[in-house]
Amino acid sequence: MVKIKDKYDVIVMGAGPAGCASATRCAQLGLKTLCIDTVQISQGQPSGVGTYANSGSLARVTLLESAKLFDSLITESRAHGIIVDTVDIDVQKMVQRKDTILTEITQSIAKVFKQHKVDFIQAQAKLLDGKRVLVTSDIDIHNKTIAAEHIVLATDSVPIAIACVPIDNEYILDSSAALNLTEIPKRLAILGAGVLGLELAGIWNRLGAETILLEAQDTFLDLADHQISREAYKVFTQQGLELKLGTRVISTKISSKKVLVEYQDNDGHHAIRVDKLIIASGRKPNSDNLAAPEANLLLDENGFVHVNENLRTNLPGVYAIGDLTILGPMLSHKGMAEGVFVAEKIASIQSLPINYNIIPNVIYTEPEIAWVGKTEQALKAIRDKVTVGVYHLNGNSRAKSAHKTNGFVKVIACAKTDIILGVHIIGSHASELIAEAALAMEFSASQEDLARTIHAYPSFSESLREASMAAKMK
Ligand code: NAI
Predict the structure, then answer these.
(1) What span, in angstroms and rounded, lies between the C-alpha atoms of 64 and 204?
(2) N or C: which end of the chain has fewer CB atoms below 10 A?
(3) pLDDT per residue over 71-98, tens digit each?
(4) What is the third-level CATH fold of 7-55+96-159+284-346?
(5) Which helix (H) or strand (E) covers residue 226, if one does?
C-alpha cells in the first residue's frame, strides 16, 4: 500500500490521459506528485489509469480493428484471390482481446508511475480551500486532507444523461456497456450520430447488426468540413447504416426483451423496436463534486472550469486541464498536451503555449475521418480567400493495391500567403496521414511546400502531395 504524505508539491485529481500525462511530467521534473482517481485496483496494484484505459477510444479502436478484419474477410478477400469458406465470430473472445489490451496499457502506465515515483491512490478527491484536497476512500485510507503547493484538476468528462431514456446496461446501454456485449444484437439503435455514435455504429454494423442512428440535428457531422460530411453520409449509408436526422428520441420502454424507442421528427411521432439501444448523446465536464463550496472554484453555467490561457483557475495554484475546460475539443491528446504544459509551468520551465488551432481530430470509422485546422465553411464565413486542392483516393496506387479507394484528401491554404489553413481527409489511414498535416501546419508550411515534398511511391501519403498540387494547377 502507498504511504500517503500530508503534503505534496503537486496533487493531480484524475488519472485519465490528461491527469496521467501531467502527473508523470511533474514527477520527471522533480516535483513530489500524488495522483488520485476513483479507478479500480487491478491485481492488488493501483493501476493508476482506470479512466485512461477506460476512456473509450482505445477500446473502440480495438473492437473496430476486429470488426474491420471480419468485414474484409467477407467483402474483400475474394478480390485478393483468397477464398475463405466460413467466417464466424466469437464475440466474447473479441471483447476479451480488447480487455487484455486495455489491461496491458493500464499496467504499462502503472509502471511509468512507479518508475517516476508518482504516488497513486484510488479514492474520491474533492478540492477544499487553501490548496487542500479531501480524500475519501474505503480502500487505502478513509478520510484525509492532503495539502499541495499546486493542484491540477483533471477529472475528465461524463456522458450527458437523458432523463427520458434510463440506462439499465442490459437493453439501454451506455458507451462502456456498448463495448462489452456478449452477442451481436439483431437490431440496434444508437441515440446520437456524433463521433461516438458513428464509431460504435461502425463496430456493430460491421459485425452484422442492423444499425439505426437517431440524430436530433437536421445536419450530419456539422463540425467536420461539409464536403467530408457529405461524403461520409454517402459512404456510411452505402455500408448499410440507417441515418435518421432531425429525430429526437423522447421516450423508451422495455417489453418482451426489446426496447421500444419513441421519437419525434418533422413528420410527427414514431416508434421502433430494437434489441438494444446505445446512448451516445454527448459529454459534459465531470465537475459536479469536484470542489467544496468554500473552495469557491469558478465554473461556467455548463459546468466547465474557468481557466485563463495558462490553464490557471480563479484559485491561486490550482489548474484545470482536459475535458474540464472549454478550451479546445474534448480529446485525449489535447488533455495530454495541457497536462505537460501545466507541469512545465509549475516547474517554471519556459514552454510554448498550446496551439489550439492545430489539434488533429479523428473519427475512427472505416473509412476514417481526420482533420486539422479550419474547415472551408468556417473560412468562407470569415470571408478568407482560400485555395482548395482535393485529391480522390481512387487515383492513388497504394489505395488501389489495398482495395481502399473510398474518400479524398482536401488541403486548404490562404490564397495570399499559401500557408496551409486546414487539411481534411476521409479515407483509409486518415488517422495516420493527419499527423503529417499537423506537423506541416505547426511549421507554417505552404501548399507549395507540401506539393514539393517528396513522398514515397506507392503510399497513401502521396495523396497529401497530390491534393496540394491540385490546388496549384487551378
Ligand atoms: P457529440 O456531441 O459529438 O454527439 C452527440 C449527438 O447526440 C449530437 O449530435 C446530438 O444532437 C445528439 N443527441 C442528443 N440528444 C439526443 C436525443 N434526445 N435524440 C437524438 N439525438 C440526440 O457527442 P459524442 O459523440 O458523445 O462525443 C462527446 C465528445 O467526445 C465530443 O467532443 C467528441 O469529439 C469526443 N469524442 C472523441 C472521439 C475521438 O476523438 N475519436 C470519440 C468519441 C468522442
Answers:
(1) 9
(2) C
(3) 999 999 999 999 998 999 999 999 999 9
(4) FAD/NAD(P)-binding domain (3.50.50)
(5) helix 226-238
- 15 Cα–ligand 1 center, Å: 23
| 227-260 tens-digit pLDDT | 999 999 999 999 999 999 999 999 999 999 999 9
Q: Note the CATH number of domain 172-281.
A: 3.50.50.60
Taking the C-alpha atoms of residue 204 and residue 303, their distance in angstroms, rounded to an integer, is: 33
The answer to whether the CB of 25 falls within 8 A of the CB of 339 is yes
Would you say the C-alpha torsion 366, 367, 372, 374 has a positive or negative sign? negative
Place of cell 482481446: 97
CATH value of 367-472 in 1.10.10.10, 3.40.190.10, 3.30.390.30, 3.40.50.410? 3.30.390.30
Distance from Cα 184 to the centre of ligand 1, integer Å: 23
Alpha-carbon span 442 to 456, nearest angstrom: 22
Which residues does ligand 1 sit against, CB inside 6 Å? 57, 162, 191-192, 194-197, 199, 214-217, 247-249, 280-283, 329-331, 362-364
Residues 6+ apart with CB under 8 A from 439: none
Closest CA relative to residue 148, chosen from 320, 37, 11 = 11
Tell the residue nearest (CA) to atom 27 of ligand 1. Answer: 282
pLDDT in tens, 289-323: 999 999 999 999 999 999 999 999 999 999 999 99
